[in-house]
Amino acid sequence: MIRRALAPLVLLALTLHCAPRIGRLTQIESPPGFPALAYDLYRNPLTPEGIALGRALFYDPLLSRDSSISCASCHSPFNAFAHTDHALSHGIGDSMGIRNAPTLANLAWQPVFMWDGAINHLDMQPLAPITHPGEMGETVKGVVGKLNSSPRYRELFRSAFGASEATGEYMLKALAQFQLALVSADAKYDRVQRGEARFTAQEEQGYSLFRRHCADCHAEPLFTDHSFAWNGLPVDPDLKDYGRQRMTGDRSDSLHFKVPTLRNLAFTYPYMHDGRFRKLGQALRHYVGGIPEGMAPDPRLPGRIDLDDRHLTDLTAFLMTLNDTSFVRDPTKQFPR
Amino acid sequence: MESLSENELIFGEGDCSPSPFVSVMTRIASICLWFLVLFPFRVELLAQGFEIRIQPLLAEAPLQTGKTVFLPSLADSVRVDRWRCLLSGVTFLKAGRPMEGTRVDHWLLDVEDSASLTIPYAGGQQPDAVRFLFGVDSITSVSGAFGGPLDPAHGMYWTWQSGYIFLMMEGWSPASPGRKHEFHYHIGGFGGPFKAQREVTLTLPEDGILRFDLDHLLEPTILQAGAEIMSPGERAAAMADRIVQAWEPSE
Question: ipTM of the predicted structure?
């Protein structure tokens, strides 16, 4: 009888051994009040191995031509994955870009990427910095070649995707998985929304000012509605960056840039698409009477926002409740050891 | 005792060879039998041996990258260094209807990789037409990273803006106003008024060779209008129309 049972058992054992490993799926915990995910996880489900590979790639300067620049060079974890203290980011050979590196928090809910919306899917975004001559200066084929000559990476790709070698597709999907895991939703604001904390009186005042004057574009809970707008900033005469118009060719898109999130402002200065405002106060004063006469920015912006210094202090206090210290200190998202 | 014949030694047979008539008839019968048995497989093999080949032509000769030729329509020399083309939804037709199991979702033609110029065909019968989308469909274009022919490592994806490059043609000609007399045509565009995708249906000739005539894309008016097309737009869309005309069955 044992012999009879043995055959199917052996068969079962063999099947289990040979069957593709069913990896553990990682869920993105959608914080309360967050909209539906913008990213289609079906095509690239999150796994611990995929995220680990993405993390390894994110911090590896191998992705640049002279191995000097990694993604983290401009998207530093301690700065909410933005580039603090740099108005414009620099790439290999100290070449200067024309835009400020934005934060990479909460990209799972973001439908378009780059300040001008040129990239329509998170997977494809790394192609831009990897191949730009002033950023990482490489080619996709070149990077994939370098990855494939590393036994360590080949093992990481095998464990993440069951792939016998690294490919452009898997490299991009791994980077996407790591970025999707960068969720920032534990600021004081979030704890207040969950009923775990309370605003101070000043923060409460600031919150109501925010809802009245800022929330049309910087909509909760992501603090951006991902739309493109001209907020009245005159064009920089040296950079001559006309924003979304470059992408669409439509003159009505001139000087339109993507509304950025207001989360983690304490870590992501300087502000605006070209980092022209080093201090938050400067950005706020731009909106309060700083827009030059005769400019006709986004219709959601009233001609003049009437706020005095006391109001601005309250508003700033509220904006500081959007800083998520646990996000910038999370060791699982930092340089892999 | 009489010594054993070779037949007996090896085959253990006595001297029982059949009469010549019987042996000939047996042979004919066995050939007929083999033919009957193998006939269906032979047809299968013939059809499976049916290849669909793409032959890019320049000045009516097979395109060779790096080779300078005289192009009469341009009245000048030209050298093409790169020719790559992305096709989607390649479907084989018989009597106007798609043949099951033969669809190729995406395919990258690259004249520098001769194996890529043969499109895999898995059907049992000879098709009489082929239909495909020149380029990549819009849904795929907004759905992130893909592998195989669509892997960005092939260089057929714009990096600074989302979208596949449907046709990449680069080269040199004194007639080009570009820097160093080079030209670079990266044709794409998946949305908006200047979509560059085009449905193409072609009758398949007996030998299964579809020719692509590059002469259509290298006329004086095109080069004079500019040596670079590097983004979606009006010129790329106009080029896409020419690309449809460039496809032809062989004669």
Answer: 0.84
